[in-house]
Amino acid sequence: MLRVLPALLLFAALVAACGTSKSALPATGSPGVSIAVTADWGTVAIADGAGTPGSVVSATRAVTPVETTYGGRFVSSLGGQAGDGTRDWIFWINGIEASVGAADIKVSAQDSIWWDLHRWPGRVHVPAVVASWPMPLTRGITGQSPPITADAPLATALRQAGANVSLPAATSGPRAIVGVGTALLERDPTWRAAIADPAAAGLTAWIDRKGRVRVWDAQAQTARLVPGAVAVIVATTDGFTASDAPVVVVAGITPETATAAAQYLVSNPEITRGTAALCLGPNNQIACVGGVGLVQ
Fold first, then answer.
1. Do residues 254 and 168 share a domain?
2. Is the CB of residue 198 less than 8 Å from the CB of residue 216?
3. Helix or strand run (H / E) with residue 247
4. Which residue from 49, 109, 211, 273 has the highest number of Cβ atoms inside 10 Å of its Cβ?
5. Do residues 113 and 155 share a domain?
6. What is d(CA 165, CA 149) in angstroms, rounded to the nearest whole number?
7. What whole-number distance in Å separates Cα of residue 109 and Cα of residue 44?
8. In this structure, are 112 and 152 located in the same domain?
């Protein structure tokens, strides 16, 4: 089992156990374009700060050195760290995976970019992440936020963030759903399809058909059971592509654990910062981080 720190501690200034320097990821409300550059599914902080509006490349270059290929359209190295073909740079804008090169996307001061250098085999595409919550529901990759639907208590948090929200969550379109993982299989067609094929949906943490919490361990290239975990916070999209409507899911193994996890997210929105997905234990402790594996 991979040993990692809980997600909240990933943002500490120094982790003596591994000797790796950490720094706080920028809040989504930071002035300028919010840039976070990490490695290994958010566990290693490389750079963060506010970039200047313009292309993703130019915004990122304000925070860390950037090397590009294909005429400057694609990023090959950030902060002096390059990919190798199985561990490459992937980026999300406002929680949505980019489908074109970094030079071809324009960002503004309200946008949030998360770059991560990680092993991608087994999760070639992760169309949506919770790293910039409440984005992508409050602001999509195009900078717009269409009307959304959501379950309580996430609806309240989304409304406070300025979203046009209706209750309860619908079964299509941008939405935030809360419930028992196995019950959501019947209620929500996207969740049902995602659990049938987690890799296609880009899920890095989920509750399987037997009600067990699982996490994708990219290093081991396997899905692991997470003993003691009671809930997951994860995102995907309706059609599993970046152009489809985002779906944020807070699922528990019981109604009580689903509600508790959602309430914890509302009270502690920073808990998901810099993570693709995560799962919680009975006392809201981080039990796993998507792409990383179990937390101990």
1. yes
2. yes
3. strand 246-252
4. 273
5. no
6. 5
7. 25
8. no
Residue 115 domain boundaries? 7-119
**286 & 164 share domain:** yes
Domain membership of residue 34 (yes or no) is: yes
Q: What is the pLDDT of residues 156-171, one digit of tens each?
A: 999 999 999 999 999 9
CATH number at residue 40: 2.170.130.30
The 8-class DSSP code of residue 26 comes to: P
Give the per-residue pLDDT at 144: 77
pLDDT of residue 280: 98
pTM here is: 0.89
Residue 39 is encoded by which pair of tokens?
């490695």
pLDDT tops 90 at residue 24: no
Residue 141 — pLDDT band, cuts 50, 70, 90?
A: confident
Q: Cis ω on the peptide bond leading into residue 227 (within 30° of 0)? A: no
On whether the CB atoms of residues 238 and 173 are closer than 8 A, the answer is: yes
Closest CA to 252 of 178, 177, 191, 192: 178
Strands 74-78 and 66-69: antiparallel
Per-residue confidence (pLDDT) for residue 31, from 0 to 100: 67
Q: What share of residues in the chain are helix, strand, coil (percent, to 5)?
A: 20, 35, 45
Are 7 and 284 within 8 A, CB to CB?
A: no
26-35, 112-121, 149-158, 161-170, range with the lowest pLDDT: 26-35
Does the pLDDT of residue 10 top 70, yes or no? Answer: no
pLDDT value at 36 more than 70:
yes
Work out whether the CA dihedral 193, 196, 200, 205 comes out positive or negative: positive
Q: What is the DSSP string of 173-213?
A: SSEEEEEEHHHHHHH-HHHHHHHH-HHHHT-SEEE-TTS-E
